[in-house]
Amino acid sequence: MIIALDAMGGDFAPASTVEGAIFAAKESKHKVLLVGPEKLIAEELLKYHKKYNLRSLDIEIVNATEVISMGEHPAKAVRQKKDSSLSVCAKLVASGKADACVSLGNSGAAMAAALFYMKRIEGVLRPAISSAFPTIDGHCIIADAGANMDCKPEHLMQFAIMASLYFEKVFKMEKPKVGVVSVGEEPTKGNELSLATYEMLKKSDLNFIGNIEGRDITKGKADVVVCDGFVGNVILKFGEGLAETMLSLVKKGLKKHPIAWASLPFLWAALKDLRKKVDYRELGGAPLLGVDGVCIIGHGSSNGVAVKNAVLAGARAAEHDLTNEIKDAIAKYEAKVNTVSNG
Amino acid sequence: MIIALDAMGGDFAPASTVEGAIFAAKESKHKVLLVGPEKLIAEELLKYHKKYNLRSLDIEIVNATEVISMGEHPAKAVRQKKDSSLSVCAKLVASGKADACVSLGNSGAAMAAALFYMKRIEGVLRPAISSAFPTIDGHCIIADAGANMDCKPEHLMQFAIMASLYFEKVFKMEKPKVGVVSVGEEPTKGNELSLATYEMLKKSDLNFIGNIEGRDITKGKADVVVCDGFVGNVILKFGEGLAETMLSLVKKGLKKHPIAWASLPFLWAALKDLRKKVDYRELGGAPLLGVDGVCIIGHGSSNGVAVKNAVLAGARAAEHDLTNEIKDAIAKYEAKVNTVSNG
Fold this sequence. Notes:
Two copies of one chain form a homodimer. Chain A is an alpha/beta fold.
């Protein structure tokens, strides 16, 4: 697979993206296109020439003269900067020269670029960011994780179809369990959106398990957790913040108890496992499902390892032909809905 | 203060509520009215007669022949069961015979009973559950935590006024920081509700600090965290679930590392501090702000200590005359809004 990586996206770019590209190329057989200002990327790459045999790695620089920064207005920036690293990445996928694009930068702009150049899949109402979140014995997918603020039930229904397919194809699990975020298990509990979504999901062919409460998310009750992008984003960021706060409280608590503090070095190995589990860097990026091509959006503060994981996530989605699978599934669903409403 | 405690509310009632009443009466000068089937409560109380000098405690049984269970339809149950322990509690406050009522049972029914018997404060559009959540160095108040699913900006504006006052009066902090839950710091980020609420809060006299992202909640960035009851409930329950999951992962992780596992007894003291911090039982119940009288709604799985904390939370709110403070603040705010719109 050929992955177009926005070399200028992310808080630590291009250092993190160039390092991530090297890691990905070393670990896999995929080709990585480093998209950005040619000279700058070449200089960054050169820093690694002593450590790695760069010629043996399948990495290529694709020149892009402009950069979209974090603070810029997404749609405006994409419209104006047609030669930005991000826009060029999206164009590479749209023209078939790359199988996936990956950006760790301005996520609003990444969505705008994907929509502008790669377009929506026919029938898809709104593309959704499908973000992985760790559970006690694996992880779940939260869709939407922030692309769409105010949603309708039919949007959430499509998020469920697309994220189920992502889980099924990429994570190799048949009939993943789908739950809709709500405030109680009973079908009568929820807000207008969750109640109406419940009714639509109940009639679908998905493995719908009903409402899922906040407390059940990390318990792994559902594989696909459906909600609007406002709720999904708040959950994800709240989880990140709470995990950080808890680890720092554990540390602070240990300090109060000298014997426990003395055992910290031994404890560290155990905590490292936990940190790894709740660390977004390990989970790679989140695909923007519903656009016509693979687009992976990663965390802005990604380091080299996180960038590598995002690149590999893009390659996996492309290998499993996720885009065409979604095309078929949405077409089938829309045909079914139209038959019912006409019949 | 005289506190009416719904002795039949909660997963472990009446054992937990009777124990909680004893703890509260022992620890404070407040009188606790145990409301429920007279005979049953008396029998439960008798179990403690060897351990405590019951006569020295200011506890009284108030008979109520009916019980509203967890599964019942809130409004219907309250309308039909006029002699339920919950309804009698609300009536005791409405008639001035008690200063606060406390229930750990069906929270929807508790709200319905409070609204039915105590009524809304004039000018209050929707009462809000204001729940405490631990932060790294204290706690914040989340309003609304589940009373109102679909809200308008003017509802959230009132939640902010009422919860600020609660923080100010009961927790003795001047000008608590108010934030509105959103997906980014920038005023342009959010959904329709958060964006419109931002504009209203910006013009208010509250100490508004702007949008607060999910990750900032446990960092204590805001004292009063404003959102609709759907989002608030999901956040609270997600936090509860994640904290549990993390502690069990820490334990599991420790088991994998024999030396760390051996240090567990020493570590336990440190973890206990943490557990206490994230334990809802320590935080007592949440007031339903905006009804004409103090009504505290506690966690269904409350034990004796949690019930005691909920009773003491009720007494504190009553002592600080929270209801009249809210009356004044809402009247002032409404007068200001009307002047502006007429002027």
